[in-house]
Amino acid sequence: MDIFINHTHLTICSPERFRSDLGYNYSLDLGQESLKYNLLHGKVLLKNPSQEQVKELVQLIIADKFVQLDSITFLTNQFTEIKESLKKDFRIIHAGGGLVQRSEQYLWIYRLKKWDLPKGKRDDNEKFKDTAVREVEEECNIKVALDKKICTTWHYYTTNGGKEPTLKKTKWYLMTCLDDSKMKPQIEEDIEDIRWLMGNALAEALQDTYPAIRFVFASLKNS
Fold it and tell me: Is 188 found in the same domain as 148?
């Protein structure tokens, strides 16, 4: 489970899906040692956390208490229990999005002063993959063919005037462009521009986008 809160990437991972404990700035087994908050910076690995510890740290990250914390991974044998317990603290919204490919180019939208990928909320009883295709085609006025699922992200924000903590679950899919002859941005969705990017322009967009979007590209590369 990959959750993006403010500037921090939070991962809840089971041992079966964990790759390596290398590359972390700080690693700790919470089943054996006490956590020292002042050491939470850069990339952090916390093993065997309790549900209460995960929830407490999530709330501290929401409050932006760790300005130098880039990512935190919770490695746990209680993956399902912690995930379901955490979800109860938030309103859950479902969405689908697409990374559209044309040869070596990728389709980007420019929205709210950031480069982004097309995505949108799932309709009732709609499959995630159908949501993703529909939203890409509506926001960009193109035709696409679905390829494969890339990853799932969870994005934190607030709704109801900032009163309701919310997690948006987005399933991301790789797509191939079939027809972009009438491509144009969906203005009513605050999209200002659409571009096919590659090379240096793609690298620059990756620097001027959200951490969750960089994760989508990294997931595609590692798939």
Answer: yes
